[in-house]
Design goal:
Blueprint: H1 2-13, H2 20-23, E1 25-32, H3 38-48, E2 50-57, H4 60-68, E3 76-77, H5 81-90, H6 110-116, E4 127-138, H7 140-146, H8 156-159, H9 161-167, E5 172-175, H10 178-188, H11 198-211, E6 217-219, H12 221-230, E7 235-239, H13 240-252, E8 260-262, E9 269-275, H14 284-294, H15 297-307, H16 322-325, H17 334-339, H18 348-363
Parallel strand pairs: 1-2, 1-3, 5-6, 5-7
Antiparallel strand pairs: 4-7, 4-8, 4-9
Length: 365
């Protein structure tokens, strides 16, 4: 009997070769540059034992190209609601979220969820990560030194040739995203920001080409943040949070605080970045765990405190720093939100036409 049991016991005690997935739990995340608090990722790994491999992109075009090719290997991605997230939903490129695995989903602001429901009926494929507006980052003192009567509250400053020429010497830049810039220009022209017909696109192209000689650069949003913080530019068109991040970096570097974010009086484009899971994600269960972790109020507060973009979890407000909670550039007042507008993805042919317009604008011809 002992000759039988001892070999069996020894066999049971031998180390078992586990598959790699059992030995190490990993998720692959693809997010915007400078868009999370690294301490949040460390905390998630400590609590769950799941390692996060974190890659970044700096344009929606880059994200869409990666996902459209298929087999990206990513488990969690962060597309903007329009047009990228909506297109990915329609293409079947995103997995429906399992709400049973996301108890913190219910903590999001219902009004904000309704805003993105047009991109994702029933909010089936995404949770709101962060949101914001598109407007201007300005250094008013430098602008007024060149143009005392500058309209600092309006896109007239940067889209009227006679105005932008007067401040071109102190540096003007625009973020490299036709997806975002063209609707803002159409809205400034008092046209439908959804406009994708030939007449609307010709008008937007003409307006942009008229001021293109005064742009020092058309660059990524991450580059805009760095250049604003160092004082390279006095005026940009970009994302609200990039400008607010630049403010914080400028103060830390002792470069003063003559930098402000302005939502144009004409109204600013409102956007939402979404937490989503690709349809072919290799680790969907752990992806759900990561999204649910991010939606915790104290976690979302830590992210907003770090990156200076608002989140959609009202309970997080109690954990925000006083500076962040009271900053109207981070949490705009109701009247500013009332003037804001949202856009939806145009049909594919119209989107290709917009891309061609943006390419010509970048080339200056």
């Amino acid at each position: 009997m002992r000759r039988f049991w001892l070999p069996l016991l020894a066999a049971l005690l031998l180390p078992v070769a586990l598959p790699a997935s059992a030995q190490e739990r990993v998720i692959n995340v693809y997010n915007w540059t400078d868009y999370i608090d690294p301490a949040v990722i460390e905390r998630f790994t400590r609590e769950t034992g799941i390692t996060v491999r974190y890659d970044v992109f700096d344009s929606l075009e880059t994200l869409e190209a990666k996902l459209s090719a298929g087999r990206s290997g990513y488990d969690v991605v962060v597309p903007t609601s329009e047009p990228s997230f909506a297109r990915l939903v329609r293409a079947g490129a995103l997995r429906s979220l399992d709400r049973a695995r996301l108890p913190n989903f219910a903590g999001q602001d219902p009004a904000l969820l309704r805003q993105v429901a047009s991109s994702d009926p029933g909010n089936a494929h995404g949770a709101i990560y962060l949101w914001g507006t598109i407007g201007m980052g300005l250094r008013p003192a430098r602008i007024r030194a060149l143009f005392p009567e500058a309209p600092l509250d309006s896109l007239d400053l940067l889209l009227r040739p006679e105005n932008i020429r007067r401040i071109a010497g102190c540096g003007v830049a625009v973020m490299d995203s036709g997806i975002d810039v063209i609707p803002s220009v159409l809205h400034w022209l008092r046209r439908d920001p959804q406009g994708a017909g030939a007449e609307d696109l010709r008008a937007a192209e003409a307006a942009l080409l008229a001021v293109r000689p005064s742009f020092r650069a058309i660059i990524s949003s991450a580059a805009i943040t760095d250049a604003l913080a160092t004082g390279e530019y006095c005026a940009v068109i970009g994302y609200s949070g990039d400008v607010v991040q630049a403010q914080a970096r400028a103060r830390e570097a002792g470069r003063g605080d003559d930098l402000t974010y302005v939502q144009p009086r004409e109204g600013a484009q409102l956007w939402f970045d979404m937490l989503a899971i690709p349809a072919d994600a290799p680790h969907p269960e752990d992806a759900h765990a990561f999204i649910d972790f991010l939606l915790r109020p104290e976690v979302m507060a830590a992210i907003t405190n770090k990156v200076r973009y608002p989140n959609a979890v009202p309970a997080s407000r109690a954990s925000l720093s006083e500076e962040v909670a009271r900053d109207p550039n981070i949490y705009p007042p109701p009247e500013a939100i009332a003037r804001a507008f949202t856009v939806a993805a145009p049909p594919p042919a119209a989107e290709r036409a917009r891309s061609r317009v943006w390419s010509r604008v970048k080339a200056g011809r």
